[in-house]
# Entry
Amino acid sequence: MRTVVQRVSQARVVVAGETVGEIGPGLLVLLGVGHDDDEAGSTALAGKVARLRIFADEAGHMNRSVLDTGGAVLAVSQFTLLADTRKGNRPSFIAAAPPELAEPLYEAFVEALRALGIEVATGRFGQSMEVALVNDGPVTIVM
# Structure
């Protein structure tokens, strides 16, 4: 799995003109699922994201997680994170898992975050989405 985690003051996902997911302060998580990924990996990654200390503490140091701050997560499936651009100018997405494998692992990731007590909003798997965010910091972590 590959993920991009962005600390945000707000984020939302729009599909066909309708807002389908929206959060205030927290994390926007773009998640790409590969062929070799599994549910155990989804659950482990959710725990890592939930405990990632990228929010400021009282001294201004990045020492708090989304669990510590009570923030929310907007999780968006994004197969393009698995793009291979080593040859030519057109990315290859052969490393991305097919939807029938990727969607259950994306859902497992979301459910693992919820099981930790985090409010989670989502996009719509397999749909064309418009993602809007205000990156706070900016802080962006690739995992």
